[in-house]
Amino acid sequence: MSVTTFKKAQAVSQSENKAQKQTQGKIVIAVDGPSASGKGTLARKMAERLGYAYLDTGALYRAVALATLELGGDPAKFKDVEPALEIVKNNLTPELLENEALRSYEVSEAASRIAALPQVRIGLLEYQRDFARNPPGDVGGAVLDGRDIGTIVCPDADVKFFVTASAEERSRRRFEELKNSRPNLTQEKVLEDIQQRDQRDSNRKAAPSIAAADACIIDTTKLTSDEVLEEVVNLVRSRFLTESDISPSEG
Ligand code: CDP
Fold it and tell me: In which domain, by residue range, is 195 found?
């Protein structure tokens, strides 16, 4: 595979971007895409390789969903979600976003519902933008993954990727992740859920999940995560980094 296999929705002037970076410093990389497309793994590994900070924005929605369920609220009603949103906003730490409980099937479902509430999206926006502008630690940039990073959260991101895969392949991957913790689950049920969540994500009025016009679209249906990683890291490096920007551990 080569970078040319990435479909580009709109050409971006590399020299323009490079010049801009020389004056502004930190690089922002947006990674969007549907459920189980591989965007999270890609974004996390990309951040590791480039030595950038990483934010899984889905974990923010998941944290609000978990808190709503713990308070006995209905994830589709903002009046029930509001107290959970306040708790999460006041306690946002990296540990909170790494909580294993955020990954459960119930929380995934609830997160998809609360993410459709415009007040929740607005409530979480500033944290995400601050993270992109001032990533924690002495790093050269930030990688954020989600559904609306390239369109709403960071429309001026330096590089945007939209990672996708067929619904069948995504349900196969998600089923592999869940089958041990939920022995009664079938791949058909996971496919059905993924299709419903795609529907909700793409059709909701607030920040529907769509590729930014200037995003590189990566279809991972037939690619391994390592193949995709090499290509995107090379693309980012060739666009923005000089030899001295690359950390020694990268070789
Ligand atoms: O990839 P997966 O759907 O399993 O989960 P996620 O990326 O952790 O996102 C959890 C839920 O939050 C999704 O169902 C999305 O609807 C929502 N989300 C969003 O609306 N906007 C984001 N920037 C990130 C996640």
Answer: 3-238
**Among 61, 119, 153, 170, which residue has the most ligand 1 atoms within 8 Å of its CB, making it the best to mutate?**
61
Secondary structure (3-state) at 61: helix
Please state the pTM of the whole predicted model: 0.85
Among 125, 130, 129, 115, smallest CA distance to 204 is for 115
Residues with Cβ within 8 Å of residue 178, at least 6 apart in sequence: 105, 185, 190
pLDDT in tens, 82-113: 999 999 999 998 889 999 999 888 999 999 99
Looking at the domain assignment, is residue 225 inside a domain? yes
User: CATH number of the domain that 196 lies in?
Assistant: 3.40.50.300
Mutate to test the pocket of ligand 1, among 112, 128, 178, 202 (most ligand atoms within 8 A of CB): 112
Residue 248 lies in a domain: no
Q: Does the residue 158 lie in any domain? A: yes
Structural domains in the chain (count): 1
